[in-house]
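User: Sequence recovery, please. Input:
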């Protein structure tokens, strides 16, 4: 399937000289407002314009005095995102945006429309240090952590987009709507940027800020055990997903190098501790790769290890990346793999693969653009 043309456009200006409001806490915004000699309720108004009305400029903040808007505009911008390249799938159900940040780094965000859900897959780092052998993001290594503002900005950008009638003609959106689900499965390992990710998550779930229900957010990790233990103590009902991809150390270490540090048995023990503490079901992600991790014997081994856990397995046919030896498993073999899991008492579903024609797999658009830039 052919992808639609890429469109690049500005989403912010002059970031280099100005601090982004999204990188500031509520307390910092109140201090700024006080420093400008304004009453505290102005801070509340600004906060609501940003998080409830998704304002992209101070000029939109109609209930603020013009002088105050001008003062704010002199020193701050709202979003740390600079420009974006957008690609839409032909069926209008998937959109990927490559955001350029103030320092030139780029990150990807993908919007997927389902029957009742508008799910956003966001990035937590520019690049990734985990080195998973089948992943496009891994190939460039880690550039840097995203700030909390850069993480939140991805969500607010799409919240604005979906609330705007502009979305209708571009995607299968009939009327203004909102982001209903957020998954941290884009570029980066969220647990490797724990502090900024959780600062962002608190603002996304705070009823006074974006206010998305914690149960509608999923954090996906490759298995950093100390951080799984830490997440169990956060007391927030954000869902945990663990990218497993193999049931034993020999195979998993060859696909997911961090496994050498946090082996399968230790990882599953950490997941059990998490379940004991939170009483929440955990999802295991398993990207099926032809001839690598998709045999009936591996399905049986996986089922035996996971059946004692309160869990669900998301089987994902791999998004193929150019020049990669890893190819997706056929539909027939995928169905067989899932059937073996189910027959051994493990709940499993095949996750729809979205947006292959728009490089929707993790890090693929970024890599394609980088390659074009280098040519
Ligand atoms: S799969 Fe995830 S954790 Fe692994 S390298 Fe890619 S982005 Fe990082």
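Assistant: Recovered sequence (375 residues):
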């Amino acid at each position: 399937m052919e992808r639609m043309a890429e469109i690049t456009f500005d989403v912010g200006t002059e970031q280099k000289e100005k601090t982004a409001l999204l990188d500031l806490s509520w307390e910092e915004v109140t201090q700024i407002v006080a420093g400008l000699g304004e009453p505290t309720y102005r801070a509340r108004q600004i906060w609501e314009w940003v998080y409830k009305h998704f304002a992209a400029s101070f000029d939109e903040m109609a209930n603020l005095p013009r002088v105050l808007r001008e003062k704010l505009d002199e020193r701050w911008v709202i979003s740390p995102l600079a420009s974006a390249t957008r690609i839409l799938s032909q069926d209008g159900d998937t959109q990927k945006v490559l955001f350029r940040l103030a320092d030139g780094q780029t990150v990807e965000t993908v919007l997927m429309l389902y029957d009742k859900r508008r799910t956003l897959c966001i990035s937590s780092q520019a690049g990734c240090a985990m080195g998973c052998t089948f992943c496009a993001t891994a190939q460039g290594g880690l550039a840097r952590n995203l700030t909390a503002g850069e993480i939140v900005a991805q969500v607010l950008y799409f919240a604005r987009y979906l609330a705007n009638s502009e979305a209708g003609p571009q995607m299968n959106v009939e009327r203004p709507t909102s982001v209903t689900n957020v998954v941290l499965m884009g570029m980066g390992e969220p647990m490797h940027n724990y502090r900024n990710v959780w600062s962002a998550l608190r603002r996304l779930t705070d009823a006074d800020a974006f206010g998305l229900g914690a149960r509608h957010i999923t954090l996906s990790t490759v298995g950093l055990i100390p951080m799984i233990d830490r997440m169990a103590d956060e007391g927030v009902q954000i869902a945990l997903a663990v990218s497993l991809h193999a049931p034993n150390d020999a195979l998993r270490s060859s696909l997911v190098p961090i496994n050498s540090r946090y082996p399968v048995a230790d990882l599953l023990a950490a997941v059990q501790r998490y379940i004991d503490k939170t009483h929440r079901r955990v999802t295991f992600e398993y990207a099926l790769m032809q001839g690598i991790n998709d045999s009936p014997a591996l399905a049986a081994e996986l089922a035996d290890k996971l059946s004692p856990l309160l869990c669900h397995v998301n089987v994902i046919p791999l998004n193929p990346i150019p020049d990669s030896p890893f190819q997706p498993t056929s539909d027939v073999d995928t169905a067989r793999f899932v059937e073996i899991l189910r027959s051994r008492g493990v709940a499993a579903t095949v996750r729809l693969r979205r947006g292959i024609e728009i490089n929707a797999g993790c890090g693929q658009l970024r890599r394609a653009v980088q390659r074009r830039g280098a040519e």
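The chain has two domains: 14-76, 81-374.
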